[in-house]
Amino acid sequence: MPVAHAVRFHRFGPPADVAHLESIEIGEPGPGEVVVRMVCAPIHPADLNRLEGRYGEKPELPATGGIEGFGTIESGDGEAAGLRPGQPVALSQTTGTWSERIRVPVDRVVPLPQDLAPDLAATLVINPATAWRMLHDFVPLTEGDWVLLNAANSAVGRAVIGIARSNGWRPLAVVRRPELVPELLDLGASAVLLDDDQMRAAIPEITGGAEVRLALNAVGGASALRLANALAPGGTMVTYGAMSRRPLELPNGLLIFKDLHIRGFWLTRWFRQAGAAARGAMFHELIQLATKGVLKAGIAAEFPLSQAAAALTAASTDRRTGKVVFRMRPAESI
Ligand SMILES: NC(=O)c1ccc[n+]([C@@H]2O[C@H](COP(=O)([O-])OP(=O)(O)OC[C@H]3O[C@@H](n4cnc5c(N)ncnc54)[C@H](OP(=O)(O)O)[C@@H]3O)[C@@H](O)[C@H]2O)c1
Questions:
Q1: Model's pTM, two decimal places?
Q2: At residue 319, does pLDDT exceed 90?
Q3: Ligand 1 site-directed mutation target among 156, 193, 227, most atoms within 8 Å of CB
Q4: 45: CA distance to ligand 1 center in Å?
Protein backbone atom coordinates (compact mmCIF):
# COMPACT_ATOMS: atom_id res chain seq x y z
CA MET A 1 0.00 0.00 0.00
CA PRO A 2 1.60 3.39 -1.02
CA VAL A 3 2.46 5.60 1.96
CA ALA A 4 3.44 9.24 2.23
CA HIS A 5 4.59 11.70 4.82
CA ALA A 6 1.99 14.41 5.20
CA VAL A 7 1.25 17.42 7.41
CA ARG A 8 -1.95 16.50 9.27
CA PHE A 9 -4.17 17.87 12.01
CA HIS A 10 -6.45 15.99 14.41
CA ARG A 11 -8.02 19.02 16.10
CA PHE A 12 -8.61 22.69 15.31
CA GLY A 13 -6.42 25.33 16.94
CA PRO A 14 -3.36 27.53 16.35
CA PRO A 15 -1.90 26.13 13.09
CA ALA A 16 1.67 25.66 14.35
CA ASP A 17 0.37 23.74 17.39
CA VAL A 18 -2.09 21.39 15.72
CA ALA A 19 -0.23 20.38 12.53
CA HIS A 20 2.21 17.45 12.61
CA LEU A 21 4.11 15.29 10.16
CA GLU A 22 2.63 11.79 9.94
CA SER A 23 2.91 8.78 7.72
CA ILE A 24 -0.36 7.98 5.92
CA GLU A 25 -1.53 5.28 3.55
CA ILE A 26 -2.73 6.94 0.39
CA GLY A 27 -4.26 3.82 -1.16
CA GLU A 28 -3.89 2.36 -4.63
CA PRO A 29 -5.40 4.51 -7.41
CA GLY A 30 -8.75 3.14 -8.58
CA PRO A 31 -10.50 3.68 -11.93
CA GLY A 32 -10.30 7.34 -12.94
CA GLU A 33 -7.72 8.13 -10.26
CA VAL A 34 -4.04 9.06 -10.35
CA VAL A 35 -1.29 9.39 -7.78
CA VAL A 36 0.59 12.70 -7.96
CA ARG A 37 4.07 12.94 -6.49
CA MET A 38 4.16 16.43 -5.02
CA VAL A 39 6.96 18.95 -5.58
CA CYS A 40 5.67 21.97 -3.66
CA ALA A 41 2.50 23.38 -2.14
CA PRO A 42 1.77 26.82 -0.70
CA ILE A 43 0.31 27.85 2.65
CA HIS A 44 -2.60 30.23 2.06
CA PRO A 45 -4.68 32.28 4.55
CA ALA A 46 -7.52 29.79 3.86
CA ASP A 47 -5.19 26.94 4.95
CA LEU A 48 -4.58 28.69 8.26
CA ASN A 49 -8.34 29.21 8.65
CA ARG A 50 -8.97 25.50 7.94
CA LEU A 51 -6.53 24.51 10.68
CA GLU A 52 -8.12 27.00 13.06
CA GLY A 53 -11.59 25.62 12.28
CA ARG A 54 -12.67 29.01 10.96
CA TYR A 55 -13.11 28.30 7.26
CA GLY A 56 -16.42 28.35 5.34
CA GLU A 57 -16.53 24.56 5.59
CA LYS A 58 -14.82 22.62 8.35
CA PRO A 59 -12.87 19.57 7.19
CA GLU A 60 -13.59 16.17 8.69
CA LEU A 61 -10.82 15.30 11.17
CA PRO A 62 -8.16 14.08 11.00
CA ALA A 63 -7.29 15.95 7.82
CA THR A 64 -4.24 16.66 5.70
CA GLY A 65 -3.51 20.35 5.08
CA GLY A 66 -3.09 22.09 1.75
CA ILE A 67 -5.58 23.18 -0.92
CA GLU A 68 -3.39 23.43 -4.00
CA GLY A 69 0.03 22.45 -5.23
CA PHE A 70 2.27 21.19 -7.99
CA GLY A 71 3.61 17.73 -8.76
CA THR A 72 4.03 15.09 -11.42
CA ILE A 73 1.89 12.10 -12.28
CA GLU A 74 3.38 8.98 -10.72
CA SER A 75 0.87 6.23 -11.43
CA GLY A 76 -2.79 5.41 -11.96
CA ASP A 77 -5.53 5.55 -14.53
CA GLY A 78 -4.55 8.74 -16.37
CA GLU A 79 -3.88 7.46 -19.90
CA ALA A 80 -7.39 8.22 -21.20
CA ALA A 81 -6.96 11.84 -20.05
CA GLY A 82 -3.47 12.03 -21.57
CA LEU A 83 -1.83 11.93 -18.14
CA ARG A 84 1.33 9.86 -18.42
CA PRO A 85 3.85 9.32 -15.61
CA GLY A 86 6.11 12.38 -15.28
CA GLN A 87 3.47 14.84 -16.62
CA PRO A 88 3.63 18.07 -14.56
CA VAL A 89 0.27 18.99 -13.04
CA ALA A 90 -1.37 21.47 -10.71
CA LEU A 91 -4.07 20.30 -8.34
CA SER A 92 -7.45 21.97 -8.31
CA GLN A 93 -10.45 21.54 -5.95
CA THR A 94 -8.32 19.28 -3.80
CA THR A 95 -7.44 19.18 -0.13
CA GLY A 96 -4.46 17.32 1.29
CA THR A 97 -1.63 18.70 -0.87
CA TRP A 98 0.86 19.01 2.03
CA SER A 99 1.95 15.47 1.36
CA GLU A 100 4.67 13.65 -0.54
CA ARG A 101 1.97 11.95 -2.60
CA ILE A 102 -1.75 12.42 -3.15
CA ARG A 103 -4.37 10.20 -4.80
CA VAL A 104 -6.97 12.23 -6.74
CA PRO A 105 -9.62 11.83 -9.45
CA VAL A 106 -8.22 12.82 -12.87
CA ASP A 107 -10.65 15.75 -13.11
CA ARG A 108 -8.82 17.41 -10.20
CA VAL A 109 -5.60 17.53 -12.15
CA VAL A 110 -4.61 20.42 -14.45
CA PRO A 111 -1.91 19.37 -16.97
CA LEU A 112 0.84 21.97 -17.29
CA PRO A 113 3.57 22.73 -19.81
CA GLN A 114 6.93 21.15 -18.93
CA ASP A 115 8.72 24.47 -18.49
CA LEU A 116 6.42 26.30 -16.07
CA ALA A 117 8.37 27.20 -12.91
CA PRO A 118 7.28 24.96 -9.99
CA ASP A 119 6.56 27.86 -7.61
CA LEU A 120 4.30 29.50 -10.19
CA ALA A 121 2.66 26.18 -11.04
CA ALA A 122 1.97 25.52 -7.34
CA THR A 123 0.17 28.84 -6.93
CA LEU A 124 -1.63 29.03 -10.26
CA VAL A 125 -5.06 27.73 -9.36
CA ILE A 126 -6.56 29.46 -6.34
CA ASN A 127 -5.45 33.08 -6.32
CA PRO A 128 -5.12 33.77 -10.06
CA ALA A 129 -8.46 32.00 -10.66
CA THR A 130 -10.08 34.17 -7.99
CA ALA A 131 -8.65 37.30 -9.59
CA TRP A 132 -9.72 36.13 -13.03
CA ARG A 133 -13.32 35.39 -11.99
CA MET A 134 -13.80 38.61 -10.05
CA LEU A 135 -12.58 40.67 -13.00
CA HIS A 136 -14.80 38.85 -15.50
CA ASP A 137 -17.98 37.83 -13.68
CA PHE A 138 -19.37 40.94 -11.96
CA VAL A 139 -19.03 44.14 -14.00
CA PRO A 140 -18.51 44.28 -17.78
CA LEU A 141 -15.26 46.23 -18.04
CA THR A 142 -14.05 48.02 -21.13
CA GLU A 143 -10.65 49.38 -22.12
CA GLY A 144 -9.40 52.02 -19.69
CA ASP A 145 -11.84 51.15 -16.87
CA TRP A 146 -10.58 51.44 -13.31
CA VAL A 147 -10.62 48.59 -10.79
CA LEU A 148 -10.11 49.45 -7.14
CA LEU A 149 -8.62 46.81 -4.84
CA ASN A 150 -7.35 46.66 -1.28
CA ALA A 151 -4.71 44.23 0.05
CA ALA A 152 -3.15 44.85 -3.36
CA ASN A 153 0.13 43.24 -2.30
CA SER A 154 -1.58 39.89 -1.66
CA ALA A 155 -1.22 37.07 -4.17
CA VAL A 156 -4.79 37.72 -5.35
CA GLY A 157 -4.09 41.47 -5.56
CA ARG A 158 -0.96 40.93 -7.64
CA ALA A 159 -2.86 38.60 -9.97
CA VAL A 160 -5.63 41.21 -10.29
CA ILE A 161 -3.03 43.82 -11.26
CA GLY A 162 -1.47 41.53 -13.90
CA ILE A 163 -4.75 40.31 -15.40
CA ALA A 164 -6.34 43.77 -15.37
CA ARG A 165 -3.34 45.32 -17.13
CA SER A 166 -3.25 42.59 -19.74
CA ASN A 167 -6.89 43.43 -20.58
CA GLY A 168 -6.35 47.19 -20.76
CA TRP A 169 -8.11 47.88 -17.43
CA ARG A 170 -6.50 50.15 -14.86
CA PRO A 171 -5.80 48.72 -11.40
CA LEU A 172 -6.08 51.28 -8.61
CA ALA A 173 -4.17 49.48 -5.89
CA VAL A 174 -4.65 50.18 -2.19
CA VAL A 175 -2.04 49.03 0.34
CA ARG A 176 -1.50 49.54 4.05
CA ARG A 177 2.32 49.84 3.82
CA PRO A 178 3.97 52.78 1.95
CA GLU A 179 7.10 50.74 1.15
CA LEU A 180 5.00 48.62 -1.25
CA VAL A 181 4.14 51.54 -3.55
CA PRO A 182 7.15 51.38 -5.94
CA GLU A 183 6.96 47.59 -6.22
CA LEU A 184 3.29 47.56 -7.15
CA LEU A 185 3.76 50.39 -9.66
CA ASP A 186 6.53 48.28 -11.23
CA LEU A 187 4.17 45.33 -11.31
CA GLY A 188 1.65 47.32 -13.36
CA ALA A 189 -0.67 49.11 -10.94
CA SER A 190 -1.89 52.33 -12.58
CA ALA A 191 -1.73 54.05 -9.20
CA VAL A 192 -1.08 52.94 -5.63
CA LEU A 193 -2.80 54.58 -2.69
CA LEU A 194 -2.43 54.15 1.04
CA ASP A 195 -5.40 52.63 2.82
CA ASP A 196 -6.22 55.69 4.92
CA ASP A 197 -8.75 58.49 5.20
CA GLN A 198 -7.09 60.51 2.39
CA MET A 199 -7.60 57.71 -0.13
CA ARG A 200 -11.07 58.63 -1.36
CA ALA A 201 -10.23 62.30 -1.95
CA ALA A 202 -7.15 61.35 -4.00
CA ILE A 203 -9.03 59.15 -6.46
CA PRO A 204 -10.81 61.70 -8.73
CA GLU A 205 -7.51 63.39 -9.54
CA ILE A 206 -5.93 60.06 -10.45
CA THR A 207 -8.85 58.86 -12.58
CA GLY A 208 -9.55 62.25 -14.11
CA GLY A 209 -13.03 61.98 -12.66
CA ALA A 210 -13.79 58.68 -14.42
CA GLU A 211 -16.20 56.43 -12.57
CA VAL A 212 -14.90 53.48 -10.59
CA ARG A 213 -17.48 50.71 -11.03
CA LEU A 214 -15.71 47.69 -9.51
CA ALA A 215 -13.97 47.33 -6.13
CA LEU A 216 -12.45 44.10 -4.80
CA ASN A 217 -12.34 43.80 -1.03
CA ALA A 218 -10.11 41.32 0.84
CA VAL A 219 -9.88 43.27 4.10
CA GLY A 220 -13.31 44.23 5.48
CA GLY A 221 -13.88 46.78 8.26
CA ALA A 222 -12.87 50.40 7.65
CA SER A 223 -10.93 49.50 4.50
CA ALA A 224 -14.04 48.04 2.85
CA LEU A 225 -16.00 51.15 3.76
CA ARG A 226 -13.34 53.31 2.07
CA LEU A 227 -13.64 51.23 -1.12
CA ALA A 228 -17.43 51.42 -1.06
CA ASN A 229 -17.34 55.19 -0.60
CA ALA A 230 -15.05 55.56 -3.62
CA LEU A 231 -17.39 53.65 -5.97
CA ALA A 232 -19.62 55.39 -8.50
CA PRO A 233 -23.42 55.11 -8.06
CA GLY A 234 -24.50 51.63 -9.11
CA GLY A 235 -20.94 50.33 -8.62
CA THR A 236 -20.15 46.85 -7.33
CA MET A 237 -17.99 45.84 -4.38
CA VAL A 238 -17.01 42.17 -4.34
CA THR A 239 -15.86 40.87 -0.97
CA TYR A 240 -13.69 37.77 -1.14
CA GLY A 241 -11.54 37.96 2.00
CA ALA A 242 -11.59 39.37 5.51
CA MET A 243 -7.94 39.84 6.41
CA SER A 244 -8.69 42.44 9.11
CA ARG A 245 -11.29 40.07 10.62
CA ARG A 246 -13.52 43.13 10.98
CA PRO A 247 -17.14 43.01 9.76
CA LEU A 248 -18.50 45.03 6.89
CA GLU A 249 -20.37 48.05 8.22
CA LEU A 250 -21.89 50.19 5.49
CA PRO A 251 -24.05 53.29 5.94
CA ASN A 252 -27.60 52.74 4.69
CA GLY A 253 -27.21 55.75 2.38
CA LEU A 254 -24.65 53.91 0.24
CA LEU A 255 -27.43 51.53 -0.74
CA ILE A 256 -30.32 53.99 -0.75
CA PHE A 257 -28.71 56.90 -2.59
CA LYS A 258 -25.93 55.16 -4.52
CA ASP A 259 -27.55 51.74 -5.05
CA LEU A 260 -24.20 50.01 -4.60
CA HIS A 261 -24.15 46.30 -5.37
CA ILE A 262 -22.59 44.43 -2.46
CA ARG A 263 -21.52 40.99 -3.66
CA GLY A 264 -19.36 38.11 -2.50
CA PHE A 265 -17.13 35.61 -4.24
CA TRP A 266 -15.97 32.15 -3.14
CA LEU A 267 -13.93 30.13 -5.63
CA THR A 268 -15.08 26.86 -4.08
CA ARG A 269 -18.67 27.76 -4.95
CA TRP A 270 -17.65 28.73 -8.48
CA PHE A 271 -15.86 25.40 -9.01
CA ARG A 272 -18.92 23.50 -7.80
CA GLN A 273 -21.23 25.36 -10.16
CA ALA A 274 -18.97 25.53 -13.22
CA GLY A 275 -18.86 22.75 -15.76
CA ALA A 276 -15.69 21.06 -16.97
CA ALA A 277 -15.64 23.24 -20.10
CA ALA A 278 -15.71 26.51 -18.09
CA ARG A 279 -13.01 25.24 -15.73
CA GLY A 280 -10.86 24.09 -18.64
CA ALA A 281 -11.26 27.41 -20.48
CA MET A 282 -10.19 29.35 -17.40
CA PHE A 283 -7.17 27.11 -16.75
CA HIS A 284 -6.16 27.52 -20.38
CA GLU A 285 -6.22 31.33 -19.97
CA LEU A 286 -4.30 31.20 -16.69
CA ILE A 287 -1.60 28.93 -18.14
CA GLN A 288 -1.22 31.35 -21.08
CA LEU A 289 -0.89 34.29 -18.69
CA ALA A 290 1.66 32.40 -16.59
CA THR A 291 3.67 31.45 -19.67
CA LYS A 292 3.67 35.08 -20.86
CA GLY A 293 4.91 36.30 -17.46
CA VAL A 294 1.69 38.20 -16.64
CA LEU A 295 1.27 35.99 -13.56
CA LYS A 296 4.31 35.71 -11.34
CA ALA A 297 5.20 33.57 -8.33
CA GLY A 298 6.07 35.43 -5.17
CA ILE A 299 7.73 33.09 -2.72
CA ALA A 300 8.75 34.38 0.72
CA ALA A 301 10.25 31.17 2.14
CA GLU A 302 10.23 27.42 1.71
CA PHE A 303 10.28 24.61 4.24
CA PRO A 304 10.34 20.80 4.16
CA LEU A 305 7.23 19.01 5.44
CA SER A 306 9.27 18.02 8.52
CA GLN A 307 9.33 21.70 9.60
CA ALA A 308 5.58 22.19 9.59
CA ALA A 309 5.45 24.32 12.76
CA ALA A 310 8.14 26.71 11.49
CA ALA A 311 6.46 26.92 8.09
CA LEU A 312 3.05 27.67 9.58
CA THR A 313 4.53 30.26 11.93
CA ALA A 314 6.23 31.96 8.97
CA ALA A 315 2.99 31.87 6.96
CA SER A 316 1.10 33.43 9.88
CA THR A 317 3.61 36.27 10.15
CA ASP A 318 2.21 39.65 9.28
CA ARG A 319 3.70 41.94 6.62
CA ARG A 320 5.36 39.27 4.55
CA THR A 321 5.65 39.51 0.77
CA GLY A 322 5.04 36.27 -1.05
CA LYS A 323 3.93 32.80 -0.10
CA VAL A 324 5.46 30.35 2.31
CA VAL A 325 5.63 26.98 0.54
CA PHE A 326 6.27 23.39 1.53
CA ARG A 327 8.92 21.84 -0.71
CA MET A 328 8.61 18.03 -0.93
CA ARG A 329 11.41 17.47 -3.43
CA PRO A 330 13.77 19.65 -5.47
CA ALA A 331 12.55 21.02 -8.81
CA GLU A 332 15.61 19.43 -10.45
CA SER A 333 14.18 16.00 -9.62
CA ILE A 334 11.24 16.49 -12.00
N1 LIG B 1 -13.10 33.98 -1.68
C2 LIG B 1 -12.23 33.22 -2.34
O3 LIG B 1 -12.58 32.34 -3.13
C4 LIG B 1 -10.77 33.45 -2.10
C5 LIG B 1 -9.81 32.84 -2.92
C6 LIG B 1 -8.47 33.16 -2.68
C7 LIG B 1 -8.12 34.01 -1.64
N8 LIG B 1 -9.10 34.52 -0.86
C9 LIG B 1 -8.81 35.44 0.24
O10 LIG B 1 -8.09 36.52 -0.31
C11 LIG B 1 -7.30 37.11 0.71
C12 LIG B 1 -5.88 37.23 0.18
O13 LIG B 1 -5.38 35.91 -0.03
P14 LIG B 1 -3.88 35.73 -0.56
O15 LIG B 1 -3.55 34.30 -0.58
O16 LIG B 1 -3.76 36.51 -1.81
O17 LIG B 1 -3.10 36.47 0.60
P18 LIG B 1 -1.55 36.68 0.87
O19 LIG B 1 -0.79 36.63 -0.41
O20 LIG B 1 -1.17 35.74 1.94
O21 LIG B 1 -1.50 38.18 1.42
C22 LIG B 1 -2.24 38.57 2.53
C23 LIG B 1 -2.62 40.02 2.35
O24 LIG B 1 -3.44 40.44 3.43
C25 LIG B 1 -2.99 41.68 3.93
N26 LIG B 1 -3.32 41.75 5.35
C27 LIG B 1 -2.97 40.88 6.30
N28 LIG B 1 -3.49 41.25 7.49
C29 LIG B 1 -4.17 42.40 7.26
C30 LIG B 1 -4.90 43.28 8.08
N31 LIG B 1 -5.06 43.04 9.39
N32 LIG B 1 -5.45 44.37 7.51
C33 LIG B 1 -5.30 44.61 6.19
N34 LIG B 1 -4.62 43.80 5.36
C35 LIG B 1 -4.06 42.71 5.89
C36 LIG B 1 -1.50 41.68 3.67
O37 LIG B 1 -1.06 43.02 3.64
P38 LIG B 1 0.51 43.39 3.47
O39 LIG B 1 0.80 43.15 2.04
O40 LIG B 1 0.57 44.81 3.87
O41 LIG B 1 1.27 42.49 4.39
C42 LIG B 1 -1.41 40.96 2.33
O43 LIG B 1 -1.57 41.86 1.28
C44 LIG B 1 -7.43 36.18 1.93
O45 LIG B 1 -8.42 36.70 2.78
C46 LIG B 1 -7.91 34.89 1.32
O47 LIG B 1 -8.60 34.06 2.23
C48 LIG B 1 -10.40 34.27 -1.07
A1: 0.97
A2: no
A3: 156
A4: 7
